[in-house]
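Supplementary notes (optional reading)

For those who missed the lab, this is the record we used. Protein: Peptide ABC transporter ATP-binding protein. Length: 345 residues.
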Amino acid sequence: MTSTDQQPFLSVKDLKVHFSTEDGVVKAVDGLSFDLMRGKTLGIVGESGSGKSVTNLTILGLHNPDSTSVEGSIELDGQELNGAPEKTLEHLRGNKMAMIFQDALASLSPYHTIGAQIGEVYRKHKGASKKEARERAVEMLRRVGIPQPESRVDNYPHEFSGGMRQRAMIAMALVCDPELLIADEPTTALDVTVQAQIMDLLKDLQREFGTAIIFITHDLGVIADIADEVLVMYGGRCVERGTKKEVLSSPRHPYTWGLLSSMPSLDGPVDVPLNPIPGSPPSLLNPPSGCRFHPRCAFAEKVDGNRCAKESPVLEITNGRGSACHLTDEQRTEYLADLTAAKHH
């Protein structure tokens, strides 16, 4: 082990991921930095198209090098991943880092049994025999809560329910005991009860193995349940970062306010209307000038000199906390109080 408790297990610095298309260059991720410690969960939240999934596919090296430009640094346990040979990345994927995808049915092969697919990962990375791989698959299915794993190991994906398929995907991701687990909206298609079970399962496995987890979602309710720290993305950039409590209790960026205002409150009156964020996420082919959120922001006109449209705000992080916004602290306090009052009346 090269890392210590003080050093981040994963460190991403000034990551830029740009795609070449017929229409021009898409700046999918545009200068993103964050750290993740062992045994902690970072929640990355934002609307579709904000750059969440692209960031994590790039960490795993799952992008097309012919049409994708990747700049910046991605260090995993002291090892630089950006520019690393494909053979190195292949060894690390599954062994040291793994991903749970959103759609288990699309991610699992319909032509092979669940056990064969979990076992294949184990055989590839650990050089195990077929018998050892099958025993390991049964063990993993038991660990993720699949009943009668000795017989279910021979089932095909269509014979599993949605929740069981997602558990099987988690078993496959964890079969080689990776130290970094990336979960890309793994509970979106599941009902609330199964969603809660999957979240509890991830937390239990994290406690058992000390796994570092990146959890991608658009749902702040899920973030409240699982994350230690939160990174809010908009238009390919981080607009706010902090601990879960800081971001959810005292958000600093109007986009984060908008996400929270569009969620129902459990402790407020039931007849308060939700306030969706007006407009649509920006085109990353031709993003707006200045702050990328300014065309949708109700507070941009409060800032002097049309600054939001002209000048891109700098994300300054102090002790892990920061936001990229031109509002003053006094303005932020005033507007946030008004929003909070409106939500509870």
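If you only remember one thing from this example: DSSP finds 13 helices and eleven strands in the chain.
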